[in-house]
């Protein structure tokens, strides 16, 4: 027994002795903005310059109160002489003797000179976004203090670097903004592994190493850490430093954005039976193929990319981020049902690519070059650094050589020569390599290309967001065209998040440099704007064909599977019936529907087995969840119509009588404690009053883009009701207004009208109400976010309570949802004033509620967004306006962005637009309730 134990210990000891050495890391800095290390620091210009102090590393020095903030369009940007001097003392482990030691910088802005113990580590590195390293083996002292000195110049001495990186439409920062660490390797070590793992299970590897070894061993492990397939070894010929390996694996789980299956590949150098050096790489089996005049195929499936452009950015730390931020960004993109992201306009942090690998996003990785280019020598060096760091990520399926003219064509061949996978190279904004990627084309121009072009269409930027324009506004038209055209490979929105940076020189103000930075779908700290939910619905991989919930509804929905790799029977579907009431006392019934067997790109039917009393509910909600349990979208379908609500809410009878007094100018009507005054000539409501005083809602209805030619008013009693109505005349007074005052004190307004022009921006009725008096609204309709004519998707039907705010999209305080704007499908609305409240009810479908006029943020010189609102303060609309983008007028974003068209000018009463509203002015301040925006649910 003793001998066996001794033998076991000897074997264990031998195992430990021969176990391969790993590449070791010793961080000199922190790992991100959530973990930093202070270094000594001296800034040569700007704030807090001219003195030694400390700074957290990694960071951008502007965000730490040093230097000067610059946006890329600043005229003085090339005059900048700002430099940062860094010092840091460190010790190297004594047991690193006889090992190669590198110092590694993952990113530094911009020119970076490095010294170890007073001696230069090598030539100055030029280029901000690339991992670079110096061999400092001969410069360090083992087990003793060492001094690292770094001089970082914010602007490069290499003008081509400034042209490619600094003269750009984004913030320009300085500093060591990504981690710095020491890297220790054995003398015999693997330098580079290039991996091509195909969907058919073929693993092709090119490996470069330094030193003396006779074998290389490769193993794959799945997510359960169990070995996948066979371990294989290959002998190494003497005096060889580069190896080609190939092995066939059976039935690997494939990598895609929908199923991001990863394996860990380990590569071990062996000499005389001893494991010398081992490295590991996360890999995914997948095949990317571009078929000319056809499309992009991944794992044999033709894809359409639902993508967004993303900067490496966080408001309080500039370009210094963290893995936590990377995870949050990718999760938000996945929540919007995106499947792709473009790196704009430079390679990202390594952890962002790791998260794309693990959570599933296709990536376009980009060599910097906004409109200018690196010279060929510099670009060659930086391209190889990018490739060395990023090449094995399965998420990367495209390379981009610069942006919008920033393409150094002399570098194109290097992408293919350096990349074992031969991934396609894109020139964003150009026709290149079989791709047409033109940015911000007008919808009609784009459709012309779709219908008559020959290249694969994949705009790498389209619908340029700014403030509340773009993104969701127009995307439905564009996506319908993209989805239905076989040459379209989808596209990428501009961009993910508002570039609002904390100004340490302005008391922490968040600055977007005017209208340069507020281009995001989410705010600087990931606040969700209305477009977030529009994109979520339009890009849902479960598409539900429009249907009305009528008495003949049988619980079925027609679905289209817009996944590429997922059968809808891998999803789950939940439904809920709700009775919507105020004060959150909602009644509901809920259940699940059997997921139908619908293959990718096919159509089928979802059947819901509803209870027998389903028609007694107000709305049906249907939620689709992906295979990972994540909600794809929740659709809402009204069951009760506005007329059904009006019948229940509006009170017409009462014990009091309607009384009328009139003078030369007015009708003065009283009923059940409500006093109403109408202008006798125009018919407009002049005043509403109850026992608590005057309700400041008046001066309406005033027609918008219609003529207020209500004339020749008469009054009569219709039973217990008083009716005041204008007289129709085809030439002089073809628009008509009628008021009915009930004994209950309720007031009914009926307007029939004709728009005054063939094309109209909007149509409806306006009233006056001082914005200073409003406290909140509670309404039944779609919410909680506002809509535009070309951004109707993403809202949910319900009862919403919204407290007043004066938020403007893309500006401080980034408070969403905004209060002011258009809201669709209004059934009723209670206007909660600071002193008085009142309620408005309609029995008509498709009525839009307009709440005041949002601030018009500063547009570009082209004034493309045109966020137009009617006159007055409160409006009830039959048609609302659209909004444009930073680069396009509303009407060029597609049919939904165009003006309304009204053809009939015959002025026949039966052809008029109609608006019916009921007013209850009996509400008082006791009905006021606190709270925030919420749905009764």
Automatic annotation (TrEMBL):
Q: Name one GO molecular function term.
A: carbohydrate binding
In what residue span(s) does the Glycosyl hydrolases family 2 sugar binding domain sit? 53-186
Q: Which residues form the signal peptide?
A: 1-20
- Please report the stretch or stretches of sequence annotated as the Beta galactosidase small chain/ domain: 716-836
GO CC annotations, alphabetized: beta-galactosidase complex
Please give a single GO biological process term from the UniProt record: lactose catabolic process
**What reaction does this enzyme carry out catalytically?**
Hydrolysis of terminal non-reducing beta-D-galactose residues in beta-D-galactosides
Give all residue intervals belonging to the Glycoside hydrolase family 2 immunoglobulin-like beta-sandwich domain: 188-286
Record keywords: Calcium, Glycosidase, Hydrolase, Signal
| Cited InterPro entries | B-gal_small/dom_5 (IPR004199), Bact_Beta-galactosidase (IPR050347), Beta-gal/glucu_dom_sf (IPR036156), Gal_mutarotase_sf_dom (IPR011013), Galactose-bd-like_sf (IPR008979), GH (IPR017853), GH-type_carb-bd (IPR014718), Glyco_hydro_2 (IPR006101)
Cofactor dependence is on: Ca(2+)
Spell out the Pfam families in the cross-references.
Answer: Bgal_small_N, Glyco_hydro_2, Glyco_hydro_2_C, Glyco_hydro_2_N
- Domain called Glycoside hydrolase family 2 catalytic: residue spans: 288-414
* E.C. code: 3.2.1.23
Q: How does it assemble?
A: Monomer.
- Family, per the entry? Belongs to the glycosyl hydrolase 2 family.
Name listed for the protein in its UniProt record: beta-galactosidase
Q: Which organism is it from?
A: Pedobacter chinensis
